[in-house]
Amino acid sequence: KTKPSVDFLSANFKMPMAQAEFYYLGLEDHLQIFDSSFVERVKEEKTIRGLFVRKVLEELQKAQGRDREVLQKALTTGLQEFDRAKATYRRDL
């Protein structure tokens, strides 16, 4: 595992507006969840979530280039939404 090159907890990003120049912080997501043990467990589930993972992984095997990137993002976002929906459902009980 790689560690972040910036310690966001101790970094001081505040400065007086008179001194401020306009900077931005760009973040790139390099998370590769599609080959994790979590995905391997989820794909065995007899649930809609398991079916979703199986279908996306099936398409990933055939995909190349930009299509592969889109499917990887879809898998990550889809699993996040399943978890968010589950949390919302439990809160409503």
List descriptors.
single chain; 93 residues; mainly alpha; 3 helices
Summarize the structure in words.
With 93 residues, the protein is mainly α. The chain has a domain at 33-92. Helices cover 53% and strands 0% of the residues. The chain has helices at 37-42, 48-62, 65-92. α2 (48-62) packs antiparallel against α3 (65-92). The radius of gyration is 19 Å and the shape is extended. The model has no long low-confidence stretch (mean pLDDT 79).
Q: Approximately how much helix is present in the residues?
A: 40-55%
Number of helices: 3
Percentage of residues in strands: under 5%
SSE arrangement, N to C: HHH
Counting helices, strands and paired strands, the structural category is mainly alpha
Distance between the termini: 38 Å
Give the uncertain stretches in residue-range form.
none
On the 0 to 100 scale, the average pLDDT is 79
* Rg over CA atoms: 19 Å
Helix-strand blueprint:
Layout: H1 37-42, H2 48-62, H3 65-92
In short:
With 93 residues, this protein is mainly α.
